[in-house]
Each structure stands twice: as C-alpha cells, then as structure tokens.
Design goal:
Layout (H helix, E strand, L loop, with lengths): L14 E2 L8 E4 L15 E4 L7 H10 L2 H15 L30 H6 L20 H22 L1
Antiparallel strand pairs: 1-2, 2-3
Length: 160
C-alpha cells in the first residue's frame, strides 16, 4: 500500500476490525518496524474466513476461485475500511491458507483428553497451545505459555 486514507473510526492500528464485516479485518504487517513514518509504504494482511458454508465445500470453492475473482472482493472489502483506497494499492498477493483450530466436541474442554494433552513428556517438553483453552486467540496462547513456564519452574524446583 502506498498509503491508507483515513476511514471512519481510529487511525491505522496493528489489528483493524470493522463491525459487521464478513472478513476478520486486517493487520498492519509493518507494525514491528522501527521506522513508522507517515507516508511510507505499508504491507497489510487481510483475513477472510470462509464461514458461509460447510468447510469442505468452502475449501473447494476457495481453491477453485481465481486471483481475478478474489481481487475485486478483497479490494471492495478494503474500500469499506478506507473509502478511496484502491489507487493506493501497489500490489496484491493472495493466498488461500488453512487455519487449523480445535473443533470443540462435547467433553473436550473439561474431559480427560485435553488434560492428557497438557502433560509434559518426561518433564522435559512442556506444551502451550491455544487448543488447551478451546479458543485460538493470542491472549489464550500467551496465557498457556505462562502456564507452561510455571510448570517448568515448578519441575525445576522439585529437582533442585
């Protein structure tokens, strides 16, 4: 992106979500760069879950949809965030990527399978994954990392 015209709401953030959108919004992929000057080109990553049909047909449709068909859909979505953004787009790379997540089933969150999956291997490999919480979001991954670190420290104290 050569730039992003300001849309309604807040200015560019790391995670940009619009209420009522079919997409999950986009992230500012340059957010960790040391130079954040206004006017510099930006890389944004838009996420679009295909939740309007069952997973199998949605995947088949996604893989059968051409770049020429995806691009107008993505650009139209960005226009809802930033009206007038189209001339600022310098390039668009499109990928169909899966996003593996746990599929909750009855008994998974509080059942023995989840508890067993959290157990370390020989007290040397400890697991921290959002699936242990049942929801794949950064905050849950962060929490699971802290939990695993605390288990490591507790194991080390027992050995010392």
């Amino acid at each position: 992106m050569e730039g992003l015209p300001q849309g309604p709401g807040r200015p560019l953030s790391w995670d940009n979500v619009r209420y009522g959108s079919a997409s999950l919004g986009y992230i500012n992929a340059n957010q960790q760069g040391l130079r954040q000057e206004a006017g510099r080109p930006k890389v944004i990553t838009l996420y679009w879950p295909l939740t309007d049909e069952a997973p199998g047909p949605a995947r088949r449709r996604a893989y059968q949809t051409s770049y020429a068909d995806w691009l107008p859909r993505v650009v139209a979505e960005l226009e809802t965030y930033h009206p007038g953004v189209t001339p600022y787009i310098q390039a668009a790379d499109l990928w169909v990527w899966g996003h593996g997540m746990v599929a909750p089933t009855p008994g998974l969150l509080w059942g023995p399978a989840r508890a067993a999956a959290r157990q370390p291997l020989r007290n040397r490999i400890f697991f921290a994954h959002t699936d242990f919480s049942g929801i794949s979001i950064f905050e849950e991954g962060f929490y699971q990392g802290i939990r695993a670190a605390q288990e490591i420290l507790a194991t080390k104290e027992k050995v010392s």
